[in-house]
Specification:
The chain contains 7 helices and 11 strands. The chain is an alpha+beta fold. The structure holds 2-oxoglutaric acid.
Length: 260
């Protein structure tokens, strides 16, 4: 299921890139499923849709959908299915369950993500270690703001941070960054310590990608508690109460994100 070099890369850098992990029929299914997901309307109490300002600031663009696994059989079946779980177990030696699920849509002009580790955004839910499976729907390029990973920097600790929880610029500047030029059908796994970032999408097409995060089964199932808390502190727009400063209240849930 996984060769020794990939495994060694994960243990040295905190991430690995598996090319062509899906076959062409699975890639086609994911393209259709993603179009279905994107067409879902803003609806209180179910999936969660987040927006960002379009460049220029006059309109808004759909930037992210979260909490869709319970609502989509195909996508839910894949990310909660035996094949992915076997892979996670082969890589980590442990059994994992889903902690959270999101897709970033990165429309043309969509903002980048400042350097960060994911771990600080997941503190307080009862698990310590996390692994994220990233599955691109569109090819990742430097122009469209592909994910970039810091090499040899996943050291099981929080790096020096800015007040907003992102990695301090001088620390980020000292790291060696690798552009992840993944394509549909590939799968990237990364742990919650590896610093990562991405640039603005300067292309004329979208750059969509799933990010589904898992925690060890032994640490318990925290998915519902995570989304209950996120819905309270950083809800999607259609659930917001007037006069609440969600940027402040929900800062942990919007770490390094460009969303409103
Ligand atoms: O999709 C991207 O460009 C980066 C995503 C990311 O780092 C995040 O969602 O935490």
């Amino acid at each position: 299921m996984i060769d020794a070099a990939k495994l060694q890369h994960f243990h040295a850098h905190g991430y690995l890139h598996l090319e062509n992990w899906l076959d062409s029929s699975e890639v086609a299914a994911f393209a259709n499923w993603t179009a279905e997901l994107e067409a879902w309307p803003d609806t209180p109490g179910r999936w969660m849709r987040y927006y960002e300002k379009a460049p220029g600031g006059d309109s808004r663009m759909l930037a992210r959908i979260e909490n869709f696994l319970p609502h989509h059989e195909g996508i839910g079946g894949f990310f909660q299915g035996a094949r992915l779980k076997r892979l996670l177990e082969a890589v980590t030696g442990e059994s994992f369950i889903v902690f959270k699920d999101k897709i970033n849509l990165k429309a043309p002009g969509g903002a980048g993500f400042t350097p960060h580790q994911d771990g600080p955004a997941y503190v307080g839910f009862g698990a310590e270690t996390f692994v994220t499976a990233m599955l691109p729907i569109d090819p990742f390029t430097v122009e469209n703001g592909c994910l970039e990973m810091a090499r040899a920097a996943s050291t099981n600790q929080v790096l020096p941070q800015n007040p907003d929880g992102t990695v301090r610029q001088d620390v980020a500047d000292s790291l060696e960054w690798e552009a992840m030029l993944a394509k549909p059908g590939d799968l990237i796994l990364f742990d919650s310590w590896v610093p990562h970032r991405s640039a603005r999408n300067q292309s004329s097409s979208r750059r969509r990608s799933y990010y589904v995060t898992y925690n060890p089964q032994a640490a318990g199932d925290h998915r519902e508690a995570y989304y209950a808390r996120k819905r309270e502190l950083f809800p999607q727009e259609c659930e917001r109460k007037p006069g609440v400063d969600y940027a402040k209240l929900g800062a942990q849930f919007n770490l390094a994100n460009p969303f409103d």
